[in-house]
Amino acid sequence: MIVDLNTNKVIYASHPDLVRPIASITKLMTAMVVLDAHLPLDEKLKVDISHTPEMKGVYSRVRLNSEISRKNMLLLALMSSENRAAASLAHHYPGGYDAFIRAMNAKAKALGMNNTRFVEPTGLSIHNVSTARDLTKLLIASKQYPLIGQLSTTREEMATFANRPIRCRFAIRTTWCIARTGIFS
Fold it and tell me: Where would I find the Peptidase S11 D-alanyl-D-alanine carboxypeptidase A N-terminal domain in this sequence (predicted)?
């Protein structure tokens, strides 16, 4: 589905209502729900296996028992697609993990995403599903979150885990960065 984001007009669509697993696109909703909670972005969150048991055995640069700010967790979730960061954000939500998943689904409903369902915050589950039409609504809504735009276009950033800096390098040639440079204009 191709949409003019200035007018929200659909330019082309093929099966826009076909429900499919959405994988890491899930993390965009995760970021929106975190920001909607208005929690302190500089608050350090501890990464503990008891907070992320679903991540057991999944590779991650986010080390167990480390502490990282909520903002850096968002950065890692959006730019490195770090599953442990996304899961940790959900576990540190008011009311916990289950409340976070309910908030994701409530947000989807509020946006009119009628064919969307979230069961976890990372995108690892094939049961996180949506349609191209619904994801367009999500993308349009994400424009109301300047921090998401800032973090998702970051080319390189330093993230600090437990007072130890780790450089995270991000691919410059993402579709978003190419579009922003005007290559597809």
Answer: 1-166
Assigned CATH class of 21-181:
alpha beta
| Cβ atoms 22, 128 nearer than 8 A | yes
Boundaries of every domain in the chain: 21-181
Residue from 101, 81, 94, 55 nearest 174 by CA: 81
4 CB-contact burial (10 Å; exposed 0-12 / middle 13-18 / buried 19+): exposed
Residues designated as active site: 24, 27, 81
- The CB density around residue 98, as the number of other CB atoms within 10 Å, is 10
156: which strand partners? 169
- How long is the chain? 185
pTM, 2 dp:
0.85
The helix (H) or strand (E) run that includes residue 168 is: strand 164-169
For the chain, 185 residues long, give each residue's pLDDT as a single digit of tens.
Answer: 999 988 989 999 999 999 999 999 999 999 999 999 999 999 999 888 766 667 777 778 777 788 889 998 999 899 888 999 999 999 999 999 999 999 999 999 999 999 999 999 999 999 999 999 999 999 999 999 999 998 887 766 666 665 555 555 443 234 444 344 443 33
